[in-house]
Amino acid sequence: MITMENVWYRFGNHAIFSGADFRMKPGEFVYVVGPSGSGKSTLLRLLHMDIFPGRGSVTVSNACSRTIRPRDIPFLRRKVGMVFQDYKLLEDRNVFDNVAFALWATGVPSGKIKKLTLQALTEVRISHKRYSMIPELSGGEQQRVSIARALVNEPYVLLADEPTGNLDSESAEDVMRLLKRINSKGTAVLMTTHREEFCRSFPGRRVRIQQERLVE
Question: Cα-flanking dihedrals φ and ψ of residue 98, to 5°?
């Protein structure tokens, strides 16, 4: 489902990836570990086709970084959900509208938006707060809304960028249990983290960014 072949990427004069290779199968749960600045977020941006490699190729489903047209990237992103460490929610809108916005933005008929939004909120167990404003929620609750927004378009894969980074231990474990439950239903999850204890408590395949490559 995801393939990186001989990927080179530089940021200014700094080499982040030098000949990196990576493969991920449908339905897998994969951790990408490494210290801050090693390239974890860059990897997710490459997979989201927010940036492109200087050499090599990135393929997600049937979309290849070498050949994809700019106008087709939004269609790819409908099936690649993104979850961020800092949530990136709209604080002037309630929980329901934050999730529904992902559907409005992709042209889903209005008749389906309510149904799909409530399904996603129910999946992450926060539908009871659908009319709450974002600042009223705890960090763990905000991350659940972020995950619901990423799920609402029924993606092939969730790309989760340090999703527990801003949470206390209890909330972090709660989010991990949620991600594992989503994965058990068939959605692939690729999660970056520097908290390697989660790799032991919530097992998944582990890949380390090391010397500008991805190492099992």
Answer: -65, -40
Q: What is the DSSP string of the chain?
A: -EEEEEEEEEETTEEEEEEEEEEE-TT-EEEEE--TTSSHHHHHHHHTTSS--SEEEEEETTEETTT--GGGHHHHHTTEEEE-TT----TTSBHHHHHHHHHHTTT--HHHHHHHHHHHHHHTT-GGGTTSBGGGS-HHHHHHHHHHHHHTT--SEEEEESTTTTS-HHHHHHHHHHHHHHHHTT-EEEEEES-THHHHHS--EEEEEETTEEE-
Residue 111: predicted pLDDT:
86
Q: How many domains is the chain partitioned into structurally?
A: 1
Q: Is residue 34 part of a domain?
A: no
Domain assignment present for residue 51? The answer is no
> Is 42 inside a domain boundary?
no
Rounded distance, CA 199 to CA 63, Å?
A: 29
The pLDDT tens digits for 123-159 are: 999 999 999 999 999 999 999 999 999 999 999 999 9
Whether pLDDT at 114 is above 90: yes
Strand pairing report for 2-11 and 63-64: unpaired
pTM for this predicted structure: 0.93
- Contact call for residues 84 and 146 (beta carbons, < 8 A): yes
